[in-house]
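Sample entry follows:

:::
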Amino acid sequence: MSKLTQVVSKGAGQINPVNIDEYLAIGGYDGLKKACGMKPLEVIEEVKKAQLLGRGGAAYPAGKKWEHLFHIPETPKYIVCNADEGEPGTFKDRLLMSKLPFKLIEGMTIAGYVFGAKAGYIYVRGEYRKIQRTLQEAIMLAKGAGLLGKNILGRGFDYDIHIISGAGAYVCGENSALLNSTEGKVGRPRIKPPHLAEVGLFLQPTLVNNVESLCSVPDIVIGGGDAFKALGMPDSGGTKLVCLSGHVNHRTVAELPLGKATLREIIYDAEMGGGIPGGKRLKFFHLGGQSGPIGGPDLLDTVYSHKELSKAGLSVGSGAVVVMNEDVGVIDYLLGVTEFFLHESCGKCVPCREGNKQIYKILKKLAQPGAAVPADLVLLRRLVTTMISASFCGLGQSAAVALNTAWKHFKEEFEANVDKSNSGAAAAA
């Protein structure tokens, strides 16, 4: 029996993405119409019942975030969609925006109704130029149909959506950096508190949600929160879009009910990853993007859910599943990961700015026989601890997660090229 489903991605690739009549024909905007007949708190209650955990990576309960914002008295309030999909190995938001732009617009419009917002912003990754044009066309068509703009559905509700293009900075995937960038400031993270719900875009109360999170809202409203929750697990309801890439036969986006498939099934089942090309063995998998944890073959039977993955030292994160075969060296792979973070660090704080630089230097030594000494491994562990505990934002705090988890599974590869006869101090960085 197939583990795949189409709930959030219903209609993707089957309808013309910029034909509003085709979207309406598959139930599009039924969620908005129903929501507009409900009280705002009733909509929030359904989102809470759904146990929708944020789909951008942090997995924060969406209902809790919505409820918090609703009870903040200050106005105006803004709705912001984080579509800065810069996490390597992650491309599920690209699918939703390019194939179902009206669903994102509908989800944002429901949020606009709930919070009495007049404006929403979609911050789109700079590299998604074509998608930005698709979203803009869909916005104009929704306005023409009376489903966005002035007097939506004849209910006196005015709400507009604007497209903001990123400039290719990975750090702007962090919500506060994203808001700074939207305001035309340097895309660097803010000090928190105050939290974005209280002091967000233009220093006003703001809801920031991921594309997949907002696209889930119409389905929650239409079927009810309990039905959405029942698709997944009691503590994390609904489905998840999983991005498969790397050494798999099928590089694809698969929508799965949370808790209904194992990592082995995701990687090897014919309708999902389809196994590893050439019959080669699995070396490791990297979950949730470059900022996520690495796991080995011994964890393949872990159920894909927030709770079960967490118990195994893994995480859902953004939904990426990057598969590496037996030919890949762990140190070489981590060099690529660290180089990415070294390039993308905004430089605001020392632990991230300098930590990534020093980690990269040590990994380069570990990749060369005899170049590293035991003290280098000690320094590497200290750097990891410092970055995780002292970096200003999530980029620095998670930049060493892959390294930290790889150490647990492949410690022998870190030690393979170390000159154990030299017990001297680590070479100066």
User: Anything to note?
Assistant: The mean pLDDT is 96. The chain is about 40% helix and 15% strand. The beta strands are 78-83, 119-124, 149-152, 157-165, 206-210, 239-246, 252-257, 282-287, 294-295, 320-325.
